[in-house]
Amino acid sequence: MSGSRKGTQPSDGPPVPDRDPARAAPPPGGLLTRRSAIRAGLAGLLGAPFATSLGASTRPLAPGLRWSGKQGTQPDDEILLGVSAAFSGPSRGLGTELYRGAMSCFGQVNEQGGVNGRRIVLKLYDDGYQPDPCVENTLRLMLEDEVFLLFGYVGTPTVTRVLPLLKKFQDQQMYIFFPFTGAQPQREPPYGEFAFNLRASYGQETAGLVDNFVRIGRRRIAVFYQADAYGRSGWAGVRAALARHGETIAGEATYRRGTQFTSVMRPQVEILQEAEPDAVICVGAYAACAAFARDAMDLGLHVPIANLSFVGSENLLALLMDASSDDPAYYTPWLVNSQVVPSYEDTSIPAVPEYRDLMTRYDPQVPEELVVEPYDPFPYSFTSLEGYLDAKLLTEILGRIDGTPERSKLNDAVFSVRNYDLGIGERVSFGPDRRQGLQSVYYTVVEDGRFVTLSDWDAKFGLDATTSDGAP
Amino acid sequence: MTPPEQQAIRIKRLFRKTRFGIFVLFGAIVFATSTLSIRTVSSQLQEEYESNSANIAKNIADSSVDILLNRNLATLQSLIDQFIEIQSIRYIYITSDTGEILTHTFVPGVPDVIREGDPHATEPIERSLPGMGDFVEVGSPILAGQAGTVHVGMDLDLVRLKIQRATGQQIALICIILIVGVLGSIWFVKLAVTPLEELLSYVVGLARRDPGGMTDARVLARDDEIGEMARLMLHAVKGETTPGAD
Question: Which numeric CATH code is attached to B38-163?
Answer without folding.
Answer: 3.30.450.20
